[in-house]
Amino acid sequence: MTTAPTPQTFGELDHPPRLLMGPGPINVHPRVLRAMSVQLLGQFDPEFTGYMNETMALYRQVFQTQNRWTFLIDGTSRAAIEAALVSVLAPGDDVVIVNAGRFGLLLSEIAQRCDARVTTVEGEWGTVVDPQAVEDAVKRVRPRLVACVHGDTSTTMAQPIEAIGEICQRHDALLYVDATATIGGMSVPVDAWRADLVTGGLQKCLGGPSGSGPITISDRAADHIFGRRHVEAGIATAGAVGGNGRRIASNYFDLAMIMDYWSDKRLNHHTEAASMLYAARECARVVLEEGLEARFARHAQAGAAVVAGVEAMGLSVYGDKAHKMTNVTAVLAPAGVDYDRVKARMRTEFEIEIGAAFGPLAGKVWRIGAMGVNARKHAVLQTLAALEAVLRWEGFEAPAGAGVDAAAKVFS
């Protein structure tokens, strides 16, 4: 007789609370955690579709837009990025991509997977791209779309967008902006930018969990996307209207079908991720109750305190400080310390997470984020005090208390 193996169930989740001071994710706001625990409703329950409509109205304010088509993509921020690109770009379309970091490269990769013809306008990591170089490329290529990243956490640079929006308007190109790392912490004025598609994520300045991607779409971008509309065979009815353009290559990320789902038609596409909708709704409520300008100022102050603190310790901040994101700071690792061990000891000795780096910056900079609930005096001071201690243990002569003192002056 064979004895059945004992099921392996592992332990209940019970890790120690950790202060997440990297480039994201960050600690989730307590109100958002509570919202996620609310019981589910059916996706066509009038109360639930009411929550969907409220979420659309809330994110219009967060995005600073009048766009009707402002809603959520079920998936991480990358899901929203892919939905935007695959729904606009058909095979053979030209796209100009502004690239000065890891996430500009990501836009290029996704566009290539759409079989678009990609032209990149390159900038050095740690800088932003000159808008004139963008206009030169747009004049030459005449693209369907220009795509760029607002705040690239790989380099901590914030690309100025408004001039690019004006370029796109002059040359009849659509503009897509990835604002994953800045929405809710830096101003993302979609209408003032004249941007056509802008996407975000919850896990950074909005103070939520990864898994929902807010998106907003202009009328002219929506017209183009609806020109590629396809009604799924299993739900099509007599007289269903499709578009004349090439069908969008992805079913899940088909914005035309997702917009029909979020419209008054409620044409079924997927089962909305209810708990993530609750989270996204509460993230927006928290942001708007604080006030956009107050929130941007708080993030700017916390970021300035991080910069003051690390420089007072004798460390250097990476990149062009004139175009630095307010909410993430890249700190050059000093010679003579073990890069990985510093990061590990921040976690094991102090339960604080800071970020490593990618590509050409791997092993050279640590990235410290001050976002959402962590863009606060206590979080910044705790992080700087811990970093000073770890660096001293690793042999770096950081002036005792200088980082905390300098940061505290910024807050005072």
Structure description:
This protein is an alpha/beta fold. The protein folds into 2 domains: 259 residues, 3-Layer(aba) Sandwich (Aspartate Aminotransferase, domain 2); 120 residues, Aspartate Aminotransferase, domain 1. The protein has 14 helices and 14 strands. The strands form 4 sheets. Strands 2-10-9-8-5-3-4 form a 7-stranded mixed sheet, with helices on both faces. A 3-stranded antiparallel sheet has the order 11-12-14, with helices on one face. A two-stranded parallel ribbon has the order 1-13. Helix 1 runs antiparallel to helix 10 and helix 12 packs across helix 13. The radius of gyration is 23 Å and the shape is globular. It starts with 18 loop residues before the first strand and ends with a helix.
Question: What's the CATH class label of the largest domain?
Answer: Alpha Beta
Q: Hey, roughly how much beta strand do the residues contain?
A: 5-15%
Strand order of the largest sheet: 2-10-9-8-5-3-4
Instruction: Give the total of beta strands.
Output: 14
Proportion of residues in helical segments: 40-55%
Average pLDDT, all residues: 96
Outline the low-pLDDT stretches. none
Tell me the radius of gyration: 23 Å
CATH architecture group name of the largest domain: 3-Layer(aba) Sandwich
Count, helices: 14
Order of helices and strands: EHHEHEHEHEEEHEHEEHHHHEEHEEHH
Find the structural class using helix and strand composition: alpha/beta
